[in-house]
User: What shape does this take?
Amino acid sequence: MASITDQIKNFFSDEEQTSLRGLFIEELQDIYWAENHLVDNLPVMAKAATSSQLRQGFEMHLQETRNQVVRLEQVFRSIGEEPESKKCEAMNGLVKEAQEIISDTTEGTMVRDAGLIIAGQKVEHYEIASYGSLRTIAQILGYNEAAQLLEKTLEEEKKTDAKLTEIAESYVNMKAKQENTSNASQGTASR
Ligand code: FE
Ligand code: FE
Ligand code: FE
Assistant: This one.
């Protein structure tokens, strides 16, 4: 928790922009925007999925993501800040890529799921990088409660990433390849 003196000092100086604490807060605002954006867009990804396992995976992670938003609010308050968000251009772009995958693939295909998994893993990797760094900076700044909360979310993102890999490797990629083969060989002499 920042002391009142620190908060006043920060308010009257450029420190919010230049100090490590200031950087930490800005990065928190970025990931707070990103998580809220995911709460709005994970349902679209879940709905677009072909296999029920992938759809359930996205739905489960939507629940976790809602908790992560609340957890970030706890992080802000634990250091004496009100939760605020700052547009994350990267997450905005990653969600656009997921939407592109949906519009570029056919409904009900495993190729779509293979694409959704790629999009989902790009999102998780961005989050893993963010939470790993934020956790470490929280530790350095002595914000132990914040560090623990961030670590918890980091673990959820890693598990989600691993689960997406597992879904891809257990059947999605193979079935997607078979779909491609049957499409590509349509009308050839061998069929
Ligand atoms: Fe998240
Ligand atoms: Fe960002
Ligand atoms: Fe995530």
